[in-house]
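Because discrete structure vocabularies remain unfamiliar, we reproduce here a specimen of the format, pairing a chain with its fold in token form:
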Amino acid sequence: MTQYEGRIVVTGGGGFVGSHLCERLLREGFAVVCVDDFSTGSVRNVEPLARHSGFELLEADVSAGFAIAGAVDAVLHLASPASPVDYLRRPLETMRAGSTGTQHALDLACDKDARFLLASTSEVYGDPQVHPQPESYWGHVNPVGPRAVYDEAKRFSEALTVAHREARGLEARIVRIFNTFGPHMRADDGRMIPNFIRQAIAGEPLTVAGDGSQTRSLCYVSDTVEGILRLLWAEDEQGPVNIGGTREMTVLATAEMIRGLVGSSSAIEFVARPQDDPGLRKPDISRAERSLGWQPTVSVEAGIKRTIEWFLENSVLLGS
């Protein structure tokens, strides 16, 4: 029987970032239990992992509760709709994932005496009035706007995680993930990068919200995964810790870059900007640099090229 380094539960392991985490953990010698109901994730993301003897798949809704038999060394909680298309379509499910779903994941970690990591988000900062955003910034969030179902669910998840750390002595970490992109993103998930790639490949207009002057700071998924795992195993850092790219680009410039890298002649089409859409987004990553020795290593151009190649190789997904 194979001896693994440990056993790790990844909720939302069939999603974009979660599936990359599962793959990396297996590569490092851990046994992995992926928990996902595939309401927004895709079984295609984890099909190649099913051949690995250390991989287990539990199809379950974390909000309804789930049980894991045997020892567990760490619980990584990523289960939640994460794109605007998904959380606006599933508002109640999104809030349950961030409340009862987080509670169930925390209970599992406490019961198993396992380390816990919450995947939070830059959206806890809302439409920020401080730029770039440090972890000490409390945010500027509309609690009753359309994005609140995601923003406030994650803010509640953070508070619940800290409460378990203080009240139950749980070894708990919080990572705030900024705009991440790469292979395994759904073409129809509504986020900027897959949207622009799909449109450029299809020769459709690239739909830019507002005038495109709002900014984002992009991070390739392998760098994000590296930051998450460094925080998970850190002995002197519990977070919250920002993990994200440091090159700030306008949405319009990003669309133009993708159009050029695809070699597309698609037009740029400006569309209505969603309510509460953040005007600025850039992480202050000095804490990650100092306490984790982490910073992104894959350039935006290199990451986008890899992502375009993946979409072209998996062209069946462009119609998904």
In short: The chain has a mean pLDDT of 95.
